[in-house]
Design goal:
alpha+beta
Length: 102
């Protein structure tokens, strides 16, 4: 006897089969949306934690600069000669590869 026939004979089929599609949708949603978002958030936090003086970065506003100083929640960027700005650490979106000067 297969599993479905066994469930039908016990009378538990309607309740169990009604929840299986919802469970399947939840599992698919987790692997398509939640798990990748958690992974990306952890990578962003690791990148922000590893910022150091001299790193070339880009902000959420699209400003490229060189890190001149790092504090707990603030990063000081040199964006041009004699121009330094204070930005929130969370505004840094990535480290830029390359040797271009600010």
């Amino acid at each position: 006897m297969n599993a479905i026939a066994l469930l039908q004979s016990t009378g538990a089929t309607p309740a169990l089969l009604q929840f299986l599609p919802l469970l399947a949708i939840a599992v698919v949603f987790y692997f398509i949306v939640i798990a990748p978002a958690n992974k990306q958030r952890k990578q962003q936090q690791a990148m922000l934690g590893s910022l150091k003086k001299g790193d070339r970065v880009v902000t959420t506003g699209g400003i490229y600069g060189t890190v001149q100083g790092v504090e707990a929640e603030v990063v000081y960027l040199k964006i041009a000669e004699n121009v330094k700005v204070k930005v929130a650490r969370s505004a840094i979106t990535g480290i830029v590869a390359g040797d271009a000067e600010a």
